[in-house]
Amino acid sequence: QQQQQQQQTDPSSDSSASSLPTCIIEAVNSERMVMHEEDSLDLAESAADETAVYRALLLLAERRLYRLVRWSRHLPAFNTVSTEDQIALLQNCWVELLCFDCCWRSLQTPSEIRLTANKCINLEAARELGAHGIVGEILALTGDLCRIGLSLTEYACLKVIVLMQPDAQGLSCPEKVRACLDEMCQSLMAHTVTACPNEPNKFAELFLKVADLKRTATAAWAMLAGKDLSPYLETNSLLMELFKSSRLRSG
């Protein structure tokens, strides 16, 4: 169902793809490299053990993080910056990218978050876990993106925009990141004008959703920051390492 939606709303899937700027083609190709990887969620339909639920969800987030790393490494623009700056960029936006991934997967089911192909969580189930606040925010953002008609091309470009932020803490070469960001923003704006002539404000709407995504990610981090994740994750797991580094960066 999601593949069908992507084909219907993705202008890069037709003959117009040849006229797309290189940075957009690269963003879409990078997304396609990882988008068909399926996840499983080892969680009973009515799991009563809250620890088991959190462990399953965090392990799912861990797998998605590894996918985000693979995705970023497929981006030629990302590979123009140093390894240290790549790490700083990912540390800066990993929560936003995970939230955005949830939104994208849930466009066909905007009343519930699609965790995997066959597992969803709605607001009622989230309330039982004490996570209704963040789930409500993700659902609201998903509804907005659904209304806007977010396409695969736009989604791929926005992910790059979220990633390539020159104000990320610890960058040694922010001007190189700024150049990549500016190129993508200008290319996406030109693309929306051409692909969506009846929606002159689409780029502005999409860009506003990036700000909303940042607020949603801040809420997600606030929920996680006060939790002890050690009962759920290995000490040296990627998620645990990012969690600890984000705690240090946020003071």
From TrEMBL:
Keywords: DNA-binding, Metal-binding, Receptor, Transcription, Transcription regulation, Zinc, Zinc-finger
CDD domains the UniProt entry points to: NR_LBD_F2
Gene Ontology cellular-component terms listed: nucleus
Location(s) in or outside the cell: Nucleus
Pfam families, sorted: Hormone_recep
Keyword Metal-binding: yes
Residue ranges annotated for the NR LBD domain, each copy included: 19-246
InterPro entries from the UniProt entry: NHR-like_dom_sf (IPR035500), NR5-like (IPR016355), Nucl_hrmn_rcpt_lig-bd (IPR000536), Nuclear_hrmn_rcpt (IPR001723), ThyrH_rcpt (IPR001728)
PROSITE patterns named among the record's database cross-references: NR_LBD
GO MF entry, a single one: nuclear receptor activity
Family of this protein: Belongs to the nuclear hormone receptor family. NR1 subfamily.
Protein name: NR LBD domain-containing protein
Lineage: Eukaryota, Metazoa, Spiralia, Lophotrochozoa, Platyhelminthes
